[in-house]
Amino acid sequence: MRILIAPDKFKGSLTALEAAEAIELGWKDAMPGASFDRACLADGGEGTVDVFSSCEGAERRSAEVRDALGRPVRAEYVWIPSERLAVIEMSAASGLAQIPESERDILQSTTFGTGQLILDAMALRPSTIAVGLGGSATNDGGAGLASALGWRFQNHIGLAVEPTPWNLRDIAGIVPPATQVPAKILALSDVKNPLLGPRGCSRVYGPQKGATEEEVVTLESRLEHFADVCERTFGTSYRDTPGAGAAGGTGFGLLTFCGSEIVPGFDWIAERLGLEARVAASDLVITGEGSIDAQTLEGKGPGALAAMAKKHGKPCIAFAGRTEKAAAETFSRCVSIGDPAIGLAENLARGAQSLRAAASRTAQSILP
C-alpha cells in the first residue's frame, strides 16, 4: 500500500511536518510494510514558509522587523535562488500569536513589519514574492505595509499620518514612493472575504483578534474611509474583490499599493508540490489539522486535498484535534485525537503522542 501523508499544522500543538512524522510513525507501528510519500500542507497562512523550506536549494533567511505593535522581532522567510522566488508569511512579522493576549490592541496593530520583510526580500532581486496571508493581528487594510514600502499618508493639511487602524480616519491624501516594488507580488489567501460589510474583515475576524463590539464598528468605519480615499486617489477600488479582506484587509493593501494578484493559497502551493500527481499515485491519502470545521470547506488545505482525492477515486482519512460533523463528512473517515477527559492545554501538549496512537489504531482497523 502506498500512502500519501499530507497534513496541515495542528495549531498550538504541532507543525505540519511534526504531524506528518507522528502519523507515519503510528501507521508504521501497525502496517510496517506500507510505503509512504510525505508532504506538508499550507494554504498561505502559518506554515507556508515551512513547506518551502524543504524545496531543493531553499534558503531560510531572517530579518529584524517590527511586530504588529511596533516592537523588534526576528522574522524568517524562504528564498529559492533558482527561481528568484521569496516566500513570506505575514504572521512571522505581524502575527497574532506573537502578541500576548493581555497586550493585544487591534486599533494600534499594523502590518508595517510585513512591509519590512518584503523590502528585505527585495534586496535579493526576486522576480516573484509570495506573501502568505493568515494569522495576522492586524486590521489596517495593509496601510502599515504600504508605509514600510515608502507610501506616505497625509491629513487634510498635509501633515503625516501614522497608518494605524485608529488613524485611518485622518487620512486625506496618499503620496507614492519614488520607486515602487518591481517584483511580482502574489497574495496567497485561503479566504474570499471582501474588505467591508457583514463578511468583511472587521466583522468576521476582528472579534477573533480581540476586538469588542464597539471596536468592530470603529474598525469598519475607518476602513471604509480609507477605502474611499484610495478610490479617489487611484480611480479604482478593490474593496469588493474576493480576498481583499484577508488578514485584516492586507489583501486590499497588496492589491491597491503593489498591484498584486490574489491567488488561492492551497492551489498555488499544491501545484508547486506536484500534489495532484502524488495523490493519483497513492492508494490512500491521509491528512489532518487542529480543527476540522466549516473553515475546512472554504479552501483550507485538508478540505481541498479531500476534494482532490475524491476526484481521483482515492479514500482520504483525516485526523483532527476536534471535528464538526458537517465538515467531517467531507472525508472518507475523520478521526478525533483529542481526549475529552483532559483539558485543552494537556491535549495540545500531548499532540504528537495522541496523533501517533490514533494513526496506529486507525491503521489496525483497516488491516485485512
Key terms for this structure?
single chain; 368 residues; alpha/beta; Rossmann fold; Glycerate kinase, domain 2; 6-stranded mixed sheet; 14 helices; 37% helix
- Unreliably modeled segments: none
What is the H/E string? Answer: EHEHEEEHHEHEEEHHHEHHEHEHEHH
Mean pLDDT: 93
Structural class: alpha/beta
Quickly give the CATH architecture of the largest domain. Answer: Alpha-Beta Complex
Write out the strand line-up for the largest beta sheet, numbering strands in chain order. Answer: 3-4-5-6-9-10
**Proportion in β-strands:** 15-25%
Total number of strands: 13
Main β-sheet, in a few words? Answer: 6 strands, mixed
Outline the structure in words.
With 368 residues, the protein is α/β, with parallel strands linked by helices. Helices cover 37% and strands 20% of the residues. The protein has two domains: 132 residues, 3-Layer(aba) Sandwich (Rossmann fold); 218 residues, Glycerate kinase, domain 2 (Alpha-Beta Complex). The strands form three sheets. Strands 3-4-5-6-9-10 form a six-stranded mixed beta sheet. α1 packs parallel to α14. The chain starts with a strand and ends with a helix.
Helices and strands in order, then pairings?
Elements lengths: L1 E4 L10 H15 L4 E4 L9 H6 L5 E8 L5 E9 L4 E5 H5 L17 H11 L5 E5 L10 H6 L3 E3 L18 E3 L8 E6 L11 H5 L7 H22 L11 H13 L2 E4 H9 L1 H6 L3 E9 L8 H11 L4 E8 L1 H4 L4 E4 L7 H6 L1 H16 L2
Parallel strand pairs: 1-2, 1-11, 5-6, 6-9, 9-10, 11-12, 12-13
Antiparallel strand pairs: 3-4, 4-5, 7-8
